[in-house]
User: Fold this.
Amino acid sequence: MKQVQNYINENKDRFLEELFEVLRIPSISAQPSLHKEDMVRCAEHLAASLMKSGADRAEVMPTAGNPVVYAEKIIDPKAKTVLVYGHYDVMPVEPLEEWRTDPFEPVVKDGRIWGRGADDDKGQLFMHAKAFEAMCATDSLPCNVKFMLEGEEEIGSVSLYDFCRQNKKLLKADVILVSDTSMIGMDTPSITCGLRGLTYMEVTVKGPNKDLHSGLFGGAVANPANVLTRLVSSLVDENGRVTIPGFYDDVRELTPAERRAFNKAPFCLKEYKRALDIAAVEGEAGYTTMERTGVRPSLDVNGIWGGYIGEGTKTVIPTHASAKISMRLVPNQDWKKIAKLFEKHFRAIAPKSVKVEVKALHGGMPYVSPTDLPAYRAAEKAVETTFGKKPLPFYSGGSIPVISGFESILGIKSILIGFGLSEDAIHSPNESYGLDQFYKGIETIPYFYKYFSLA
Assistant:
């Protein structure tokens, strides 16, 4: 492994500049009218990069949506095979005025890489490409490697499910290795062994057939914006509980011993509030902040709009108002069942003075990776080797919906060995990724291959 680490150290500057080339491509999957060509360009760039890194085969494969980058290097048909998953699409950058740097012109400042996708997920997937290169260049790759990089994770991996069904043989592997998650901290390394699921809805409340003068009609006609905010606020009660009937039916309550074990992970509430500039936390009564974001479900409004929001005033009752709402789910909750329960409840509580539309946009099941898997132990040992500490098992509040799909379609477990941190501001303006995180990831990944090949 010394040769591998020497290669990494000798090529650090080049690795960083090559990452910048990927970050400069505005591959925003949620805005196809603006960035469809950028998605293809990014996929082609990554395929070429993987070929240069040592792949025997790398190609851009079409789907019903954005293409998938597939690459492989088979050293021995009898050897273990690792399938690396990542996504090259990124979140929209709005509000642009809140960025301190150009989101698609990455820079290094204060020891961090600033730019959209620096962490989620271009920076993290690129660690795998460069670790792979280091192993290939030093003739020390101990496993077969396959790459599957998609361009739709941020919009629900819509096309990847069919891609997996159609390419089961091509994607056959012993484990899926993913870096699209975070650690508790660089001084408290962790491995994600659980992800919350997701149900994402959009609702529209419709009132009069046109905008109305709020003086002539105010108080006599239902205001869709007023009604929408009233309905949305009722979805979570004063104790932080979701009010949808049946929402908690399949939630497994942790035992007192499980709760104690879960809360042993280092967490400072004072620092948490300071970092977010909030005076107090809020959530489901009776649970800690760690539990609320890791093992309890939640409901949040992600966006809400309607009526006039331009400069100055315009006194209208809007004809309609809309909101996007996400629900994070825990093991045993089915996202499709929750979507149906949500729609039934939302329609039931809407007054007759308005019409409502309810759409399920996308979702995914929760995921649990057992800590007794040989691949998990290999990841644990790899992290301990480079960080000098045994990593803690950690349940993330985030979701990667397609991970549970991999298990159901391909029959393969995933290991989530991410190097992000909470301060990376993924999905927000001023996303960044620490240089130490980037390089530590590249250093750690080859050890996973080494230990997994021996497991």
Remarks:
- The chain has a mean pLDDT of 96.
